[in-house]
Structure formats: C-alpha cells, structure tokens
C-alpha cells in the first residue's frame, strides 16, 4: 500500500492556479525527490502535504486515511526547514525538544527521545550549545534532529542544504542517505540540485508549472526522458 496518495490535487492562490491535478503515489520507505524550476510549485506541494497550506481540490491520503483537513500535528509528518529556522535563544537540547514540549509530552520522555536523536546525529557533545555556537552543518543536523524526535512516518525536506557550502552539502547528502536507510522512513525531498536528486532518490518527480511532467527512477529519467524539458533537468545527453 502507498504511504501517501495525492489524487487530482490542485491549489489556487486567488485566481492563480499553481498546482494542477497532481496524481502521485508514494510507497512506504521510499525516498522521493521533487525537482523543477523555481516557482513550479515544489514548496507549495510539500506545504499542502504538511498541512501548512489548504488543498483547493482533490484528495490527500496518508497511511490510507484522508488527511485534507487534518491538523498538521496529527499527520505523522515532520518538515525539515533550513537550519536558520532554529530558535537562537534556545540550546540544541531545547530546540530539539520544543515541539514535544509544546505537544505536552512528559519531560522524561522528551529527554529520552532527544537523547536518541542526538545519538543518531552525533549531537550529544553539542546539546547545551546555542545555534550561534554551531557550524552550518551542525545547525542543519539539529534541524533534522528536531524532526526525528517526533518519530514521524514521513519526513519532508524543502531544499535543506541550499545555504550550505559545496563541501558540506556533499557531506550532509551522505548523512541524509544514511539516515533514511537507518530510520526506514518515507522521505519527500525538494531540491533543484541535479546531483542531489540523482544520488538520493528512489524516485524523481519532475514538476513544471504546477504539473507532474514525468515520474521515474533516476536511471529511467536519465536514459528515457519523455521530453526535452525532463532531459534538460536530469542532465542526460538526449
Ligand atoms: P517552488 O518551491 O517550486 O519554487 P512555490 O511552490 O514556492 O515554487 O511557488 C509556486 C507558485 O505559487 C509561484 O508562482 C509562487 O509565486 C506562488 N505562490 C506561492 N505561495 C504563494 C502565496 N502564499 N500566495 C500567492 N502565491 C503564492
Ligand atoms: Mg520552493
């Protein structure tokens, strides 16, 4: 069964239709990457799945249940924002536990879940630091840690590495791939970096002006792009 289904999903801002009749099935445990030019609707689609934007029409199912109107906190989803979205006045430990504290989880359980996530991400020595005392890569790991502590079934990443330098981006890409294997979670990852898409994805979804242009494995899109647009994006010589 699919972990996540979009059926004829559309989104309009006023009279501007930015997501157009999107049909998509995402298998449990799959690493799916959304690519496409700036403004094509990648972030909007992710935010609709997370519940941060209303769905104008169509259906969203997660784990077999319709979730169109479900509160974001009850969707079993965690969204990883860019590292600058950390709370600067809170320690790493407080940043990672914040959502759980907000949800009324008992302190002992928060401590346990934060420690587990810190161990996975090798953040234990940094738990009492503030974000300003961390490197870019460490801050990004904390941003991921904040998602992990909630034990989501689905992780959403919106260009999480775009403001890191090239070397760190490669390192974090490998970390994210390892994390996906280790947690066995379903991941949807937005990027406009072809190399990130090709190396991380089980499946790539190419978006263009609010529609899905083509879906396939990196190899399928590379060797058999449906058209010039997909070929241009995936970088095959066709
Ligand atoms: P991407 O992430 O692929 O760059 P977005 O999903 O951010 O694209 O945006 C898709 C389209 O929707 C763009 O034309 C953008 O201007 C428009 N858009 C996004 N958010 C809003 C909003 N809150 N109000 C009006 N238009 C929006
Ligand atoms: Mg975006």
TrEMBL record:
This protein's record includes keyword DNA damage: no
Domain of life, per the record? Bacteria
Task: Write out the GO MF terms.
Answer: ABC-type maltose transporter activity; ATP binding; ATP hydrolysis activity
Q: What is this protein called?
A: Lactose ABC transporter ATP-binding protein
Can the keyword Nucleotide-binding be found in this entry's annotation?
yes
Q: Which UniProt keywords apply?
A: ATP-binding, Cell inner membrane, Cell membrane, Membrane, Nucleotide-binding, Transport
* Family under the similarity heading: Belongs to the ABC transporter superfamily.
State its location(s): Cell inner membrane
User: Per the database record, which ranges form the ABC transporter domain?
Assistant: 4-234
Q: Which residues of the full protein are shown?
A: 1 to 238 of 359
| Location, primary (coarse class) | membrane
- Membrane-topology descriptor: Peripheral membrane protein
Gene Ontology cellular component terms for the protein in this record? ATP-binding cassette (ABC) transporter complex, substrate-binding subunit-containing; maltose transport complex
